From TrEMBL:
<dbReference type="InterPro" id="IPR011990">
    <property type="entry name" value="TPR-like_helical_dom_sf"/>
</dbReference>
<dbReference type="GO" id="GO:0006401">
    <property type="term" value="P:RNA catabolic process"/>
</dbReference>
<feature type="repeat" description="TPR">
    <location>
        <begin position="562"/>
        <end position="595"/>
    </location>
</feature>
<dbReference type="InterPro" id="IPR039226">
    <property type="entry name" value="Ski3/TTC37"/>
</dbReference>
<keyword id="KW-0802">TPR repeat</keyword>
<dbReference type="Pfam" id="PF13432">
    <property type="entry name" value="TPR_16"/>
</dbReference>
<feature type="coiled-coil region">
    <location>
        <begin position="3"/>
        <end position="39"/>
    </location>
</feature>
<feature type="repeat" description="TPR">
    <location>
        <begin position="596"/>
        <end position="629"/>
    </location>
</feature>
<feature type="repeat" description="TPR">
    <location>
        <begin position="40"/>
        <end position="73"/>
    </location>
</feature>
<dbReference type="Pfam" id="PF13174">
    <property type="entry name" value="TPR_6"/>
</dbReference>
<keyword id="KW-0677">Repeat</keyword>
<protein>
    <submittedName>
        <fullName>TTC37 protein</fullName>
    </submittedName>
</protein>
<keyword id="KW-0175">Coiled coil</keyword>
<dbReference type="Pfam" id="PF14559">
    <property type="entry name" value="TPR_19"/>
</dbReference>
<dbReference type="GO" id="GO:0055087">
    <property type="term" value="C:Ski complex"/>
</dbReference>
<dbReference type="InterPro" id="IPR019734">
    <property type="entry name" value="TPR_rpt"/>
</dbReference>
Length: 669
């Protein structure tokens, strides 16, 4: 085949491809290759025809042969790109990226538009593969090309914005290089914006600040960006909110942080981060109830803030709302997920605080949960305070041997740790070894005098040790007073002060004040509530007694607060208000249906109201529950007599007289 015939065959192959006669084209190409096996065009045409005949392997081989012959010719590279771009081609993205890179090299000095088209394709490919560094570097080449062409500032601005869009998901990877490239894109986009200040520029600034807030190591730039945006847009609260959240999450309460909190609240009184910031300020100033109130309100508006939930748990612990503190700690842990870096610190703090709260709840289930929380603390085994908490949890669970083992180990390894001596004291106290407990708590106080709990337990130790230490003003009383002074929310300290003033000092008025304070701090403390009511009655102050009872019964859920319903029911019974007495005594019985004395009182109330049949049932129920209640049996007999059931009445009277021969009311009946 002459040179002329080769050219004719190639022309025929090209015409066949144009007419979609691909098999015919292959024949012509094969004829050429018999004569010239290194004919570049023949191999390219084979690649093209084979690709159309869905013979990808043959097409790929042909293109690669052509590239081997002429590595800097475009046709084969273009054909290979078209082949790899077909939807039925799988696992070729890496090869396609290499082809695009070669095409960029070949187009660079020639067709700029085609260079840009291939560049866009390569960027899209890298983006699908989440290769963000390659995305950024390739897109920057495109921008440089456009800058060399002298494009308009507006087009350049859009190109930088497109780069931001391409990289915005990369922040999840926390890759430092990609992060820096993304931040660079933001800075260029902000500088190339046409209208400053303007809506587009403002929104871009918000995105920039939001992006910076995701990089823990960019604190300085974040603060500067927020300051710069505030200077440009003084009425926009967003940069201040981000800055406040940053200060909250960083756990620092600097002058600048406090200034930001108050400035944000001036700008927007309903701002979640502003209210949270104010709540943290209250916590640091020991205004715990105010802190709880503000942190709760702020978190209703900005709930995805782990640090704020932690501060709320801390404030709730301070006012002894232990169950609520556990819930807040759970919110911290839920918001953090599986944290790294600075957030790991918040997770460890939340787990420790959760364990402390559960230990204060002081039941076996809570103790078990506390142990699980402590196990999750990273490096918790090397922290002696965490070990002391684990010992307390074991003690609450009744595992005294494990608690003692931890206590002994801590006293050997950390003899100056207050928590180690306190744990030893708790163990001795639980075993009623009061003299040893006294030594342990004194050692704990010597090392950490400002802990109310240690003084409270030392006071309890003296209270139960002997009558002498109970009555000694310098012992139990002094420790309870110190505990109450150090922790004005410690209800149990005020309850024992009440016990001291009532039982030892005989000062009913002061005792009543202490019980009232204890009950105000903990409305579940029935002992203090009952004592406050009883002392108010003894002091002739029925208004205070009723005020306490009314407050409790108004808040009580059905089946709770029996003591309050019972006390108020008895008051109504004494003061001739039987209908109200019936209502309250029924409520008391809903809380405890097996209280025979309560049934007896209810019978009395029904009797006084004139509801004899119902009164009879109540007295019978009382005597069923407690056959020793002679008065209830007698009242039942008297009611049978009133209702004309004489035989039953006689039988009941005789039943009483068998047990109590000289019971005058029965004889009379």
């Amino acid at each position: 085949m002459s040179n002329k015939e080769v050219k004719a065959a190639l022309k025929s192959a090209r015409d066949a491809i144009r007419n979609k006669e691909y098999k015919e084209a292959l024949k012509h190409c094969k004829a050429v290759l018999k004569q010239e096996k290194n004919n570049y065009n023949a191999w390219v045409f084979i690649g093209l025809a084979a690709a159309e005949l869905e013979q990808p392997d043959q097409a790929k081989g042909a293109y690669k042969k052509a590239i081997e012959l002429e590595p800097n010719q475009l046709l084969a590279w273009q054909g290979l790109a078209n082949l790899y771009e077909k939807p039925n081609q799988i696992d070729v993205k890496g090869d396609l990226a290499d082809v695009y890179k070669k095409l960029l090299e070949l187009y660079e000095s020639g067709d700029k538009q085609k260079w840009c088209d291939v560049c866009n394709k390569l960027v899209e490919l890298y983006h699908q593969e989440k290769k963000y560094v390659e995305v950024a570097e390739t897109w920057q080449k495109l921008i440089r090309m456009k800058e060399e062409e002298g494009v308009e500032k507006a087009e350049l601005h859009q190109l930088w914005k497109k780069m931001i869009h391409l990289l915005k998901d990369s922040t999840k990877n926390q890759d430092n290089k990609t992060g820096q490239l993304l931040l660079t894109a933001f800075i260029h986009a902000l500088h190339s914006a046409e209208t400053v200040p303007g809506e587009d520029h403002q929104n871009l600034y918000k995105e920039f600040i939001q992006c910076l807030s995701k990089f823990p190591h960019e604190v300085g730039r974040l603060e500067k960006a927020c300051d710069d945006m505030m200077a440009l847009y003084p009425t926009v609260s967003y940069p201040l909110e981000v800055l406040c959240l940053h200060f909250i999450q960083s756990g620092t309460l600097s002058e600048k942080a406090l200034h930001c909190f108050s400035k944000l609240l001036e700008m927007d009184a309903n701002s979640g981060p502003g209210i949270i910031g104010f709540g943290i300020k209250c916590l640091k100033e020991n205004k715990y109830k105010e802190a709880v109130q503000n942190l709760t309100e702020g978190l209703q508006k900005t709930n995805q803030c782990p640090a704020a939930w932690h501060y709320l748990a801390e404030a709730q612990m301070k006012i002894h709302e232990h169950r609520n503190a556990v819930l807040s700690c759970n919110q911290v842990l839920e918001a953090l997920g599986t944290p790294e870096g600075p957030n790991l610190r918040w997770k460890n703090l939340a787990l420790q605080l959760k364990a402390e709260s559960l230990i204060k709840i002081a039941d076996a289930d809570a103790a078990e949960e506390a142990i699980k929380a402590l196990e999750q603390i990273v490096d918790g085994n090397s922290d002696p305070v965490v070990s002391a908490l684990r010992g307390q949890a074991y003690l609450n669970k009744g595992l005294v041997d494990q608690a003692s083992k931890i206590s002994q180990e801590l006293l050997l390894s950390h003899p100056d740790l207050a928590e180690a001596h306190a744990l030893e004291g708790f163990i001795h106290y639980s075993q009623k070894s009061y003299e040893q407990a006294e030594k342990s708590f004194l050692n704990a106080i010597e090392r950490k005098a400002g802990t109310a709990e240690y003084h409270q337990y030392l006071g309890l130790t003296y209270w139960f040790m002997s009558d002498e230490t109970k009555k000694d003003k310098g012992k139990a009383l002094t420790q309870f007073l110190k505990a109450a002074k150090l922790d004005s929310y410690l209800g149990s300290a005020f309850c024992y002060l009440g016990n001291y003033y009532r039982d030892i000092a005989g000062d009913k008025s002061r005792a009543r004040g202490c019980y009232k304070k204890a009950f105000e701090l903990d409305e579940m403390d029935e002992e203090s509530g009952t004592a406050a009511v009883n002392l108010s009655v003894e002091l002739g102050d029925m208004d205070t007694a009723l005020s306490i009872l009314n407050e409790v019964t108004e808040k009580a859920r059905p089946g709770t607060a029996k003591w309050a319903w019972l006390h108020r029911g008895l008051y109504y019974l004494r003061t001739g208000q039987p209908s109200q007495a019936v209502s309250d005594l029924q409520a008391a019985l809903r809380a405890d249906p097996k209280d025979s004395n309560c049934w007896e009182s209810l019978g009395e109330a029904y009797f006084n109201r004139g509801s004899y049949s119902t009164a009879l049932k109540s007295f019978r129920k009382a005597s069923e529950l407690n056959p020793g209640l002679v008065y209830s049996i007698y009242r039942a007999a008297a009611l049978e007599q009133i209702l004309g059931k004489y035989e039953n009445a006689i039988a009941t009277y005789q039943q009483i007289l068998k047990k109590t021969e000289n019971y005058v009311p029965a004889l009379k009946g």
